[in-house]
Write a structure and sequence with these properties.
This protein has two domains: 93 residues, RNA polymerase sigma factor, region 2, helix turn helix motif (Rna Polymerase Sigma Factor, Chain: A, Orthogonal Bundle); 94 residues, Orthogonal Bundle (Arc Repressor Mutant, subunit A), CATH 1.10.10.10. Helices cover 74% and strands 0% of the residues. 25% of the residues are buried. By secondary structure, it is an all-alpha fold. It starts with a helix and ends with a helix. It is built from eleven helices and no strands. It comes from Neptunicella marina. Belongs to the sigma-70 factor family. ECF subfamily. This is RNA polymerase sigma factor.
């Protein structure tokens, strides 16, 4: 007598596939039990408080239920896919509350293919960002520091620096593009830090 593989030894991949193909509620419950705690912990590591983290994870798991068919095990591991959904929900959550403020995830957008250890990423972002910011021109570096490390909005910086809001946004966008390019150039150095720190 053959056993249902989901019941005998469920994997994240098989649970997601069962949700996608059969709208399997039992598979969803199993996925929730396996991952909800880890996803909540990751949301907190990304900067959410406990209450917000619970809301983010709930929204993320609802997305899993509706979008399970989008999971492709050939392009990403199931855990990576799930963490990315939580990360995106966290980004959406912050942007809704402070739409004019750039956050650390804006400095390093998710490109999909370049995967680093999820838990280590959030710990290293600030250290790595500070190093890369030193490569920016002074006028861009000043704005990035005020936005990223001091939490100021575009309009606040424009007022303090007596510059048009459009100029602030333009300089910030140039800085973010430069940081993104620098991050890619220095990726091997970041990997070395990962390997020696964790």
């Amino acid at each position: 007598m053959n056993q249902d593989p989901i019941e005998s030894s469920p994997t994240l991949e098989s649970l997601i596939q069962a949700i996608a193909q059969h709208r399997d509620k039992q598979a969803f419950v199993q996925l929730f039990n396996l991952m909800a705690g880890k996803l909540k912990f990751y949301a907190i590591r990304c900067g959410a408080n406990e209450q917000d983290a619970e809301e983010i994870v709930q929204e993320a798991l609802i997305s899993v239920w509706h979008k399970a068919s989008q999971f492709n095990p050939k392009t990403a591991a199931a855990t990576t896919w799930l963490f990315r959904i939580v990360r995106n929900k966290r980004i959406d959550f912050v942007r809704k509350s402070r739409p004019d403020q750039i956050q650390s995830f804006d400095l390093f957008p998710d490109h999909g293919g370049e995967e680093l250890e999820i838990d280590a990423e959030s710990d290293l972002t600030a250290q790595f960002t500070r190093t890369l910011i030193e490569y920016l021109p002074d006028e861009q570096r000043q704005i990035v520091y005020q936005v990223y490390f001091e939490g100021k909005s575009h309009s606040e910086i424009a007022s303090e620096m007596d510059l048009p809001l459009g100029t602030i946004k333009s300089r910030l966008r140039l800085a973010l593009n430069k940081l993104d390019s620098l991050a890619k150039e220095h990726m091997s150095w970041l990997i070395i830090i990962l390997l020696t720190t964790y």
